[in-house]
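Fill-in record for Imidazolonepropionase.
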Amino acid sequence: MKPIFIRNASQLVTLSGSSDSPRTGKQMGELNIIENGSVWVENGLIAMVGTHEEVLQAYESRLHEARIVDATGKLVTPGLVDPHTHLVHSGTRENEFNMRLRGATYMEIMNNGGGIHASTRATQQATHEQLFEESFERLQRFLLHGVTTVEAKSGYGLTLEHEIKQLEVAHELSAKHPIDLVHTFMGAHAVPRQYKENPDEFVDIVINEMIPEIAKRKLAEFNDVFCERGVFTPEQTRRILEAGKEYGLIPKIHADEIEPYEGAELSASIGAISADHLLRASEKGISMMAEKGVIAVLLPGTAFFLMADSADGRRMIDAGVPVALSTDCNPGSSPTVSLPFIMNLGCLKMGMSPAEVLTAATINAAHAINRGHEVGSLEKGKKADITIFDVPNYMVLQYKYGVNHVDSVIKAGKLVVDGGKLVWNNTHIHN
Ligand code: NIG
Ligand code: FE
């Protein structure tokens, strides 16, 4: 692989110095920008970051070896990290979208056998190959939006066989696509209809049959539960997450999304790495998260698409909670791959600053999936995951909202998007 010399960015956002822990409070607004910055990339890693003069001087004698990527007038950032998706699924639910536009609620649709149940039926019926194809296409679009690492949850299988299928598809995608996937088991995403009268029976299956087998096959690092009134109670959530811990699975929670349910409190008391959604999190829950350093993964695209009030990102940052942002990419509550648009919503709907949303979608997102040492900032020795935007500074990325500004993407030292087009294989999708 040829070295890559990214030259002369108008702004090079390094976000350096936070590989050990996520940024909190005022630090979330500090990007450690180098004006007229350049990067030397070699063997898949970042070899040097500095001003154009510094990098040029260090590597002048080797310029002829390198592929030169001119970033004059452009913004260079760490590759974006999406720490919460339901990437692997089959089918779409635009019919439910239409019902919601006419007044039906998300939970009503789910309680009538639609929602997660509808996507579960479609995903159970799909073959491994079909799921791979559908999800591969989504990953291509993630890459075009500047995203280089994606967390992917199971949870549309809801039987051991189909949960394994979903996770195996995710592993194959990670091996075959440039984007790195991080794997989460979410067998407790919904109570299957046949256990409706006896949900604890299903909780026992998750604990006694699914978790041990998923762990044995090393299919996941994290364990997530949809803790919500009418889905899994805080007590059931605790049992499932404690059982996962015994097998080395790190807890995450879909918390306080639709109703306040003490999910934030639970995330802190159980030692979760993140609590996600948090639209209705309590003051007490937020301060407990701040104290324990639980990362708030906020999903303003879901609030937007469900026509609900967003989580109070501003309040959480001010309370000292490390905040990350994610698409929640899924067929029901957020069918998008545009993490840049989610960042726009972070500013416009949650009172976050343009600097804070960039921190939230890079280094803090990396920490939310235990990848803070590998990705999320541009520093010597880290993986060369780099996104180049065709804007002169990071504020314009938020100001000119709803537009895909991605010009190029370098993933593990390889140019995979160039001039807004995928260049790593022969697919014809482009911006
Ligand atoms: O994060 N809330 C639960 N799970 C997903 C939605 C899944 C679906 O509707 O298919 C979420 O919003
Ligand atoms: Fe989700």
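KEY FINDING: The chain has 16 helices and 17 strands.
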